[in-house]
Amino acid sequence: MSLIETTDLYKTYTIGDVSVHALQGVSVSIERGEFVAVMGPSGSGKSTFMNILGCLDKPTSGKYILDGIDVTATELSKLAGVRNRKIGFVFQGFNLISRTTALENVELPMVYNHTPAKERKEKALEALKAVGLEQRAYHMPNQLSGGQQQRVAIARSLVCDAPIIFADEPTGNLDTKMSIEVMELFTRLNKEMGKTIILITHEPDIAEYAGRLITFRDGKKVSDEVKK
Amino acid sequence: MIDTFLSVLRISLKAIMANKMRAALTSLGIVIGVAAVITMLAVGSGTQQNMNDRFSRFGTNTLYLRQPWNLDESITSPKDITMDDVRAVRNVDGVVAAAPYISSDFSVKYGITSTSIDVLATDTDIFKVYDWQFESGRPFTEREVDTYAQVAVLGATVAETIFNDIDPLGKTVIFDDIPFTVIGIIKKSGQGGWGFDMDEGTLIPYTTGKVKMNTGWSSQDRRALDRVIIRVKDINTIENTKEAISNAVRNTHRIHPLGEDDFQLDDMASWIEEAKAASKTMSILLGIIGAVSLLVGGIGVMNIMLVSVTERTREIGIRMAIGATSADIRLQFLAEAVTLSCIGGIIGVLIGVGISLFIEAHATNIPAQLNIFSIFVSFGFSAATGIFFGYYPAYKASKLTPIDALRYE
User: How many domains does one find in chain A?
Assistant: First the structure.
């Protein structure tokens, strides 16, 4: 069974009298250990698709099974736990909590699943080590470079042993050198730790790191190709 | 559980410390409220204690018979209170003693020392009404009263002022050009309550006072007394005794059975009740003032928490994305509001206790008595304020959806 299985997803936003059909029947299946890039112009529905895959939003119709859990049948309020256990998020704007050390940021997902403090610290340090930032554990986000902040965010996505990492334009705010660093880290996590990585980007050279490319246009999947 | 509590507390403190100035100004409302409640309740209970002390010296088993201050329209000429009344009252069942009472300020001279003191002209029953202890000498006798003897019993402070180190017994002092022999000194008793303070006063036979020093009294009539001080046997039957006294006085005043009293009988116990009720009302009023400032402080907390929720919408989104439930978010903001108001509460308690203790120690004219109960109540109120006014902002935060919150710029 696939890790991610969506069938005929529709999402319609109604703003006043205007209905926006953001997704119009998207069916995708992603296997464990895949590295998938999702591309498409803005307004193509890729962000809506990612929000639904990330359990941040629910489709208007269609079915979504994540690691055996029927997400479409689960209440939105119960999805917090699903996100916590199954998904790690990495955002364009890093989204670290300011005035909080790197270590505490990494510990945060474990605070919400009530991991004991000692275990939390051990795991967080381990995750920081995996991204090569164990020396910066007690730095605040504003004392770190953009690339370092993004690596802290990646460590945070690893810490609950979630099988999937969603990365939404992870290199959008980084220069080329840092972008390469971050993308190499993703590749390593995919190869060495077997993480399933789903990456949204609009830069073709970033999408190159992925093993599979899905393209969106006008709320529909227009291409889905596996490299080599 | 403790672990969760500690991490919630840590997150709250961190968020509060991030905006120190704002947090300080916000909790200032709570600080002032709590400090006000504690100080005001301390002053309130101090006043009450002070009143109780005065009353206990005064004796609750005494009654005052006097002409009314506010005359009923139907009474055109109230009869004076006289010795006839005193004698009638003495015959009433349940009355231990009844003493005539006329007082005025007189200048007193001994050698070259001259001062003004409160002179009380009375008779031997006054020593049965009040349980005064003699420092030296003796009270005047019935015979001395009957024979217009020029004798005086001095209060301790008066004796000190006039005689300094000399033994006053047997010495002659001059009141209003009339010489009196000092026959006794009464021990110091402290503050004497309302009306007459024995420490500062002097007792003389009323006969001597009325006949030989017939100036300076409030009534020029030789028979008129200011009032009669009555001591009753049993406080529990004071109402019956009062009625019996009333009837006796109506009789001597020849009041028609349907006529109104032309005198007034004040009962210390009922005065005390009235005074206590008044001081209780004052305490409640002061408490309300404090509660209002707590309320205003609470609104400040709510306001700042709403601002905080808006400012940190994105942070809420991040927390939700990585697994915080609505309940987690609600708890976090509620904890922050409660922490904020409890910090205010603690500082308020410290300031309130400080002010109360300072007043207790240094301000002799304002009585204050720190009330432990008020500390708990006002601190409890500040925590409750945090919960009450923090709930809505916390609820608002918890209702955000993760995508809306994450998109918020």
Answer: 1
Compute the distance between CA of residue A156 and CA of residue A104 in angstroms, rounded to an integer: 9
Structure confidence by residue, pLDDT tens digits, A101-158:
999 999 999 988 888 889 999 999 999 999 999 999 999 999 999 889 999 999 999 9
Torsion of CA A205, A210, A211, A216, to 10 degrees: -80
Domain ranges of chain B: 2-54+273-407, 68-262
Transcribe A97-147 into DSSP letters: PTTS-HHHHHHHHHHHTT--HHHHHHHHHHHHHHTT-GGGTT--GGGS-HH
Instruction: Report the CATH number that the domain containing residue A169 is assigned in CATH.
Output: 3.40.50.300
Closest alpha carbon within chain A to B16: A99
Answer whether residue A10 is part of any domain.
no
Nearest chain A Cα to B329, which residue?
A: A112
Residue A90 lies in a domain: yes
Does the distance separating the beta carbons of B3 and A117 come in below 8 Å? Answer: yes
Q: What share of chain B has pLDDT > 90, as a percent? A: 26
Residue B57's pLDDT is: 62
pTM of the model: 0.70
Residues in B closer than 8 angstroms to A95, CB to CB, are 314, 317-318, 321, 406
